Amino acid sequence: MNEVFDFDKIVDEIHKLYDSKYPSKCKPNLKANEGTIIASVFTIDEKTKDTSIITLTSGVKCLNEIDLQRENVNGRLIHDSHAEILSMRCFNLYLLNIMKQILTNEEENSFNCTKENQLIQFSRSENKFKWNNQFKIGLYISQIPCGDCSILCEEKEKDINNQKHDKWEDDHMKQYLLPTNKTILRGRNNISKSGHVRSKPGRMDSIPSFSKSCTDKLIQKQSTGITNCLSYDLFDKKQVFLDYLVLPKEGMTEENEQDLKLCFKRIPTLNPFEVVFTNTNFKDALLSINGATSISTNASGLMLLKVDISNNHNNEYISQGLQDGVKLGYTTKLKNPLRKNCQSSLSRYEMYKLYLTIKKLKQKDQKKKSIENKSYLDFKDSLTERCDLIKCVRELMSPDGWVKTFKDDFKVL
């Protein structure tokens, strides 16, 4: 356990928040033997050791490639609803909300937000947002992330129990996400092969998802930062990095722990996070120490700390249920178009709309030109340094190339 911060205590607070305030409609039905995975992004003030739980999310589902090609998607579907991915999306929404409130308050009260105890600082003279390095960022996940991490643990367990696992030859094409790419494996196929990029797990007879495993996405974050393209563009030094990844210790050996830490060092990075383990267990988990498996619940959900830059001890949260990539209660059959206002606040459409609002506020008192309403993908492509960095990281992870998800492009109307 880390000697500076008490991560068991932090995780205990996250579980208490889940028990007391998490929407019941987003929790698994324990009577039906359902379970789920939760994740939370939290910050720690290095000076005061105060902790703030920013996000709390749950989810185990991911859309496949056919889902993403529905009529009138236009940035309104959330592709990946695994808990840790939702939490990182939530954290970026929180950053954007802070930026908007800072600029709105400045417009009303004419002040510069450079407080020492503020997560994000803004100087109008420089017209730039800066992350306050006094705060460390942690991500807690209640289960080992899918991909190489979970497979490594399963491999070790089989070795201990002298169980055999099938070895697939390189010419066995079913193990690959695409037959033309031998450095990206599909889901949990060929678990004897480690050190490769994997897609999200799913049944062999299901339509595959091209979304990458949570292990692979976390490996990338050590180079690209926890910021998405929107918050990246608004920060002075662009990247903001994750400092701690907190995982459950339940059922883990010392060898397991070392293997997991090595898993995140698959490619070189200048900004590795520290992997720490907690002894505090999540009661609604999908997996238990004795190997019992629950049925995964279809519902996902999120809780996000309300932004109040005048109150450093704010503990009010907004919540939202999710299912099939849209708000809970707004799902439709695949053959039908998406319903009006189905999109979550975490959707690309809503977050890009918020980003454009911030850009307009940020241009106050400057010789401003109108904000160009580029399409979402044109905007992402315009961030050339970020694109080059991502390309470099992906080439290191998968020398045979990258299998991309369906291009979901749109303009904010």
Helix content: 25-40%
Specify the number of helices.
9
Q: Could you say which overall geometry the principal axes of the C-alpha atoms support? A: globular
Record field, number of beta strands: 18
Question: Which residues form runs of ≥5 with pLDDT under 50?
Answer: 159-163
Q: Tell me the distance between the termini.
A: 49 Å
Taking all Cα atoms into account, the compactness measure Rg is: 21 Å
- Average of the residue pLDDT scores: 88
Strand content: 15-25%
Q: Biggest β-sheet, characterized?
A: 9 strands, mixed
Structural class: alpha+beta
Give helix and strand order, one letter per element, not per position: HEEEEEEHEEEHEEEHHEHEEEEEHHH
What does this structure look like?
The longest helix has 27 residues, at 83-109. The protein is of the alpha+beta class and 413 residues long. Strands 2, 3, 4, 9, 13, 14, 16, 17 and 18 form a nine-stranded mixed beta sheet that branches. A hairpin with a 4-residue loop joins strand 7 and strand 8. It is globular. The model is unreliable at 159-163 (pLDDT under 50). It is built from nine helices and 18 strands.
